[in-house]
């Protein structure tokens, strides 16, 4: 049973006040809050169990290594990967996508080869491909969403041509909340011999993910959106693609032997994990995944779906509010502007005075904002610990903004 009272009690920050108002945290699309179990695990890791991993034979090193490596299996279960050896630890989705750009794409692509992107991509899934465009002459092919914010999977498939080498696509827009049918895209791309990378930063925290059924080659997640610490993350890499990758960073752990004249690399996934990792951060992410899987991703999705529908109906009653994207398949993310002269930053500041945390700006998605014809929006993004009462407070605050700006 999904117990919202208990869940809210697990997150200590939700009990605090901001500007003498109870905190209403609706900036989860940027970063989620942390449950006490994650905070405790990290405190214990630093205060009682810290040592470097993989390199020591003493008790603390073995303990840290066991806890750290156990997270690989947790990520594999969370994503339903075929093996934990298909999981590479990263500092987050940004590093994960850059890893694929440098280690898999750069050695294989030729001038004129294509990467297919949707207009909804986060900058983290755009800039690494621009690097290849600038340095190698790779071509970026863009697929637009429609007026509702929906992305037709067939339009993405139709964009695949004889020079396409990769389709890099988000599973959920961080601006509109639109959920993309990535499975249809991935299977069609695979049938054409084209690799697929899915940005799961927004989606993985809100719904069950099955990379095996999805048929993708790469799937990236970031820990700080999954109720874990910043500086943690991972990427699923299909075993066949791992065999095609060269090392990205050089240093400890990714080697077997180094001499004056030669270097022998470790096997994957260690081959792509150089240097001392974020040990405690990854352990914290593992605890966060345990926490989510203990509640159940289907239960989380059902709660957030009801919250999405309730918030949608409340916002629809504000005829002076412009909501960007009204897809019928979306998460509980709402980007909006007020009719008139009120800037998104002003709205965000006023909401903050009432204890409500939202995001304002371009949300690291400038191509999408340009496509939507807006310079900036406010974004209210919900999580499993949010409630309909908080949605009501958001609407009340927006009505106050409307009155204030006339």
TrEMBL record:
One Gene Ontology term of the molecular function aspect: pyridoxal phosphate binding
CDD domains in UniProt: SufS_like
Reactions that this protein is recorded to catalyse: (sulfur carrier)-H + L-cysteine = (sulfur carrier)-SH + L-alanine
EC number(s) on file: 2.8.1.7
Ranges where the Aminotransferase class V domain occurs: 24-394
Gene3D superfamilies in UniProt: Aspartate Aminotransferase, domain 1, Type I PLP-dependent aspartate aminotransferase-like (Major domain)
Annotated SUPFAM superfamilies: PLP-dependent transferases
Signal peptide: none
Co-factor(s): pyridoxal 5'-phosphate
Pfam families documented for this protein: Aminotran_5
Keyword line: Pyridoxal phosphate, Transferase
Enzyme class: transferase
Gene Ontology biological-process entries: cysteine metabolic process
UniProt family annotation: Belongs to the class-V pyridoxal-phosphate-dependent aminotransferase family. Csd subfamily.
Biological role stated in the UniProt entry: Catalyzes the removal of elemental sulfur and selenium atoms from L-cysteine, L-cystine, L-selenocysteine, and L-selenocystine to produce L-alanine.
Name of the protein described by the UniProt record: Cysteine desulfurase
């Amino acid at each position: 049973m999904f117990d919202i009272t208990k869940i809210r009690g697990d997150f200590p920050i939700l009990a605090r006040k901001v500007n003498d108002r109870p905190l209403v945290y609706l900036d989860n699309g940027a970063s989620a809050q942390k449950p006490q179990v994650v905070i405790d695990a990290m405190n214990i890791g630093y205060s009682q169990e810290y040592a470097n991993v993989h390199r020591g034979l003493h008790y603390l090193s073995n303990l840290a290594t066991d806890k750290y490596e156990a997270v690989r299996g947790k990520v594999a279960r969370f994503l339903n990967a075929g093996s934990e050896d298909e999981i590479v630890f990263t500092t987050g989705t940004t590093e994960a996508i850059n890893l694929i750009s440098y280690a898999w794409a750069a050695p294989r692509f030729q001038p004129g080869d294509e990467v297919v992107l949707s207009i909804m991509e986060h900058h983290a899934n755009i800039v690494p491909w621009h690097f290849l465009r600038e340095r190698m002459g790779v071509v970026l092919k863009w697929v637009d969403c429609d007026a509702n914010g929906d992305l037709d999977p067939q339009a993405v498939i139709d964009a695949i041509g004889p020079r396409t080498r990769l389709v890099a696509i988000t599973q959920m827009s961080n601006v509109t909340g639109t959920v993309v049918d990535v499975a249809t895209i991935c299977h069609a791309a695979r049938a054409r011999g084209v690799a697929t990378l899915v940005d799961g930063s927004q989606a993985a925290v809100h719904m069950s993910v099955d990379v095996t059924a999805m048929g993708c080659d790469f799937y990236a997640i970031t820990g700080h959106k999954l109720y874990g610490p910043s500086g943690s993350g991972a990427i699923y890499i299909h075993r066949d693609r791992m065999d095609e990758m060269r090392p990205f960073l050089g240093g400890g752990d990714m080697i077997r032997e180094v001499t004056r004249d030669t270097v022998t690399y470790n096997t994957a996934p260690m081959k792509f994990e150089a240097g001392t990792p974020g040990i405690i951060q990854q352990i914290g992410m593992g605890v966060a995944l345990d926490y989510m899987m203990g509640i159940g991703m289907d239960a989380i999705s059902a709660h957030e779906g009801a919250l999405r529908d309730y918030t949608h109906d409340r916002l629809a009653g504000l005829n002076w509010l412009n909501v960007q994207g009204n897809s019928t398949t979306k998460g509980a993310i709402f980007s909006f502007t007020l009719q008139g002269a009120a800037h998104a930053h002003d709205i965000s500041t006023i909401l903050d005075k009432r204890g409500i945390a939202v995001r304002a700006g371009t949300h690291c998605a400038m191509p999408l904002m340009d496509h939507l014809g807006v310079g900036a929006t406010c974004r209210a993004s919900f999580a499993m610990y949010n409630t309909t009462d908080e949605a009501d407070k958001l609407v009340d605050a927006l009505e106050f903004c409307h009155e204030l700006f006339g």
